């Protein structure tokens, strides 16, 4: 049930119970629209220049390797939805089949947050929604003070975060070629540069969650294909993750909780395989396990007292998107079609929706854009 304070255009959607079992709206199999790459200088190129091929990391490799040589993307630069929009403009120009109007255009990470909210106990967030030309664009609301806090938090995780990237460097061969130095260990394909990314723009052509179209952009770590071969399609894509070796019940529970985010992130984009590299406290890779993304919920259900279930996640995702769609999309969803080609679009209203852990989601209007 949505509670409404219509005078302020303020709406509240409570979280569903975690035990909810009513059958959830279905999520269509994602279809790939296009791909693009962030090159080492962070510029955008259409195509697969930054794609990487999977090559299993050697057990025993040291995930601290190359820490002092890493190159990091400037997190202070707010890229908004730039890459996704550049990719979609190219799709529109070339007349390829793009996203469906009347739905959402955003990063996969935003939808992952909506889905995982029913099980998120600590981290709130805020997103901005703007309706433009028949679709709703969503991005993270990221004011400077929040970003400063996040940077502080991230610096305390810097080493752990680096090991995730180092696992990628040990597990992949870049399409652009390896960049090894004389002292690099076996399996290392080149120093970590977090500016480099390979993005898929996937779309659920007919419907995404229930009848709400989604057009999502998201980074993919690698493909399982012969080195040098062209992009082999969504079903060969693979997500890489790291985890600490599981040695007790508490760590087991933490890992299973983390699986919700891993599952949602990959499943939304249609990435069928997740490989987890397990490392010890010193950063040495001890083992690897591969998970079939679509089987993860079944695997979770087989555990005693599973820490999450996809049903409330899908219900909540659908409920939030329905609420946003209902209030944010104007009744004339495509003003450009009734205006002369050179006429400016009317100013769009900016809406925000924020998540309060354990409670729910608030949607409110903040007025016309700029
Ligand atoms: P792990 O998830 O294995 O720790 P992704 O897995 O999404 O491809 O991201 C690659 C790595 O980047 C992650 O590996 C993690 O180390 C780091 N990373 C991703 N998102 C992050 C964030 N919000 N803050 C800090 N590090 C992050
Ligand atoms: Mg990645
Ligand atoms: Mg990864």
Quick structural overview:
This protein is of the alpha+beta class.
- Taking strands numbered 1, 2, ... along the chain, how are they ordered across the largest sheet? 1-2-17-16-7-8-6-11-10-3-4
The amount of helix comes to: 25-40%
Task: Please compute the radius of gyration using only Cα atoms.
Answer: 21 Å
Shape: globular
Strand content: 25-35%
**Count of helical stretches:** 7
> Kindly, what is the distance between the CA atoms of the first and last residues, rounded to a whole number of angstroms?
33 Å
What does this entry look like structurally?
It contains 7 helices and 17 strands. It is of the alpha+beta class and 370 residues long. Strand 16 and strand 17 (360-368) form a beta hairpin. The protein starts with a strand and ends with a strand. The strands form 3 sheets. It has an 11-stranded mixed β-sheet with strand order 1-2-17-16-7-8-6-11-10-3-4, with helices on both faces. Strands 12-13-14-15 form a 4-stranded mixed β-sheet. Strands 5-9 form a two-stranded antiparallel ribbon. Helix 2 (108-116) crosses helix 5 and helix 2 packs across helix 7 (310-328). The model has no long low-confidence stretch (mean pLDDT 91). It is globular, with a radius of gyration of 21 Å. 25% of the residues lie in helices and 26% in strands. The chain has helices spanning 82-93, 108-116, 144-156, 158-171, 249-269, 296-301, 310-328, and strands at residues 3-5, 10-14, 31-38, 44-46, 52-54, 104-107, 125-132, 135-140, 172-174, 197-203, 214-219, 222-223, 237-244, 273-279, 285-292, 349-356, 360-368. Bound molecules: adenosine-3'-5'-diphosphate (A3P) and magnesium ion (2 copies). One magnesium ion binds at residues 219, 221. The site of adenosine-3'-5'-diphosphate has 9 residues, from helix 4 and strand 13.
């Amino acid at each position: 049930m949505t509670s409404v304070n219509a005078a302020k255009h303020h709406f509240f959607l409570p979280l569903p119970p975690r035990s909810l079992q009513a059958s959830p709206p279905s999520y269509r199999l994602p279809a790939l629209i296009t791909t693009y790459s962030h090159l080492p200088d962070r510029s955008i190129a259409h195509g697969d220049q930054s794609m990487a091929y999977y090559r299993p990391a050697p057990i025993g490799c040291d995930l601290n390797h190359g820490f002092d040589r890493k190159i990091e993307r400037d997190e202070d630069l707010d890229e908004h939805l730039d890459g996704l929009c550049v990719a979609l403009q190219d799709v529109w120009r070339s007349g390829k089949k793009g996203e469906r109007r009347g739905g959402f255009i955003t990063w996969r990470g935003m939808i992952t947050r909506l889905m995982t909210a029913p099980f998120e106990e600590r981290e709130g967030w805020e997103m901005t929604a703007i309706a433009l030309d028949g679709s709703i664009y969503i991005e993270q609301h990221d004011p400077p003070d929040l970003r400063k806090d996040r940077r502080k938090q991230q610096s305390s995780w810097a080493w752990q975060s680096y090991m995730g990237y180092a696992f990628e460097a040990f597990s992949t061969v870049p399409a652009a070629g390896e960049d090894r130095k004389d002292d690099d260990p076996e399996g290392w394909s080149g120093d970590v540069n977090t500016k480099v990314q390979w993005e898929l723009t996937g779309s659920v052509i007919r419907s995404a969650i229930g009848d709400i179209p989604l057009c999502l952009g998201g980074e993919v770590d690698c493909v399982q294909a012969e080195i040098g071969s062209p992009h082999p399609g969504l079903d060969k894509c693979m997500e890489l993750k790291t985890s600490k070796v599981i040695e007790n019940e508490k760590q087991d529970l933490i890992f299973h909780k983390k699986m919700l985010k891993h599952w949602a992130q990959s499943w939304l984009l249609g990435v069928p395989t997740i490989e987890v590299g397990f490392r010890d406290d010193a950063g040495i890779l001890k083992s690897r396990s591969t998970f079939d993304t679509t089987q993860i919920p079944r695997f979770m259900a087989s555990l005693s007292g599973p820490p999450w279930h996809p049903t409330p996640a899908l219900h909540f995702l659908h409920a939030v998107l329905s609420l946003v769609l209902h209030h944010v999309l104007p009744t004339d969803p495509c003003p450009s079609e009734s205006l002369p080609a050179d006429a400016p679009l009317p100013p769009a209203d900016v809406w925000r929706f924020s998540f309060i852990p354990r409670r729910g989601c608030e949607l409110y209007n903040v007025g016309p854009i700029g």
